[in-house]
């Protein structure tokens, strides 16, 4: 099944992955008793970047699903799950294995203390069955290098309810209205749990708090909007003119930048609504702009970094272990990082890019090449 390539989204992926690296790099410096960018909000936006990834995931998987429905009248869910597994699971399990070996066996030998934070068998089992976001609610001291896998679990869990969402949208006459109601309904449930209106045991509450499906559902809403009002439409139509309008694009990009640089003093539920809306509009505009754009994000080298962004996200904690050891052991590097902390974050990003490139070329592509058999 052929599908349209949505240009510019890989660049957004890279920027989001970079925000995660910057946030974690700042945290690593803090652990080394080096203060850096404590008041510069853009270095505290790892969680926001993950929210963006959720919105992008919802947009893309539903965009492809709606395209498949147009071409074949149905969705082949067996192929859908196989493609998702080939993309996500090989690097996930490789990262999990290497990290567990490192923090469960190698680090205790080197430091004579455990850094794992959870019982090895029970915790590893939850990671293996794609419940990594249940580990930290159960054992709060989970080490950060492996806790990053939580968001992969959220995506996998969303895939389980995705067929039900698509069934509802496929059958609905007013698809956009139903998509909006699904978003608002889940948002209401999520925040009812967060605000204590729905009570349960603490572990379940923390677990449900990781299931930020409303970001994915907003992505689905705008992918449906794209199919209804942009796909196969006249390029001079009202909606194409709207998303190609320079003022509209500047407003959306400005709002996205404000999310990165400013803490809005509003309730968290409204922050979620605002950011999911802005992120999804940004994705829509970047992927469907055709002309007259101030911002063209289809930049070749940044797009490539976006292609390897999954590796950037998963592998940078492993890279950081080696880099932090080098900072401690090498006097010149230690002095350099103490004087110019940004050097650590730049080194972390550059080394992660290189490792991710190797991972993509020599490991991930061996599985990705199999995806074409399941289209």
UniProtKB/TrEMBL annotation:
<feature type="transmembrane region" description="Helical">
    <location>
        <begin position="336"/>
        <end position="356"/>
    </location>
</feature>
<dbReference type="InterPro" id="IPR002656">
    <property type="entry name" value="Acyl_transf_3_dom"/>
</dbReference>
<feature type="domain" description="Acyltransferase 3">
    <location>
        <begin position="7"/>
        <end position="356"/>
    </location>
</feature>
<feature type="transmembrane region" description="Helical">
    <location>
        <begin position="203"/>
        <end position="226"/>
    </location>
</feature>
<feature type="transmembrane region" description="Helical">
    <location>
        <begin position="268"/>
        <end position="287"/>
    </location>
</feature>
<keyword id="KW-0812">Transmembrane</keyword>
<dbReference type="Pfam" id="PF01757">
    <property type="entry name" value="Acyl_transf_3"/>
</dbReference>
<feature type="transmembrane region" description="Helical">
    <location>
        <begin position="299"/>
        <end position="316"/>
    </location>
</feature>
<dbReference type="GO" id="GO:0016020">
    <property type="term" value="C:membrane"/>
</dbReference>
<dbReference type="GO" id="GO:0016747">
    <property type="term" value="F:acyltransferase activity, transferring groups other than amino-acyl groups"/>
</dbReference>
<feature type="transmembrane region" description="Helical">
    <location>
        <begin position="147"/>
        <end position="169"/>
    </location>
</feature>
<protein>
    <submittedName>
        <fullName>Acyltransferase</fullName>
    </submittedName>
</protein>
<keyword id="KW-0472">Membrane</keyword>
<feature type="transmembrane region" description="Helical">
    <location>
        <begin position="48"/>
        <end position="66"/>
    </location>
</feature>
<keyword id="KW-0012">Acyltransferase</keyword>
<dbReference type="InterPro" id="IPR050879">
    <property type="entry name" value="Acyltransferase_3"/>
</dbReference>
<feature type="transmembrane region" description="Helical">
    <location>
        <begin position="238"/>
        <end position="262"/>
    </location>
</feature>
<feature type="transmembrane region" description="Helical">
    <location>
        <begin position="176"/>
        <end position="197"/>
    </location>
</feature>
<dbReference type="GO" id="GO:0009103">
    <property type="term" value="P:lipopolysaccharide biosynthetic process"/>
</dbReference>
<feature type="transmembrane region" description="Helical">
    <location>
        <begin position="91"/>
        <end position="111"/>
    </location>
</feature>
<keyword id="KW-0808">Transferase</keyword>
<keyword id="KW-1133">Transmembrane helix</keyword>
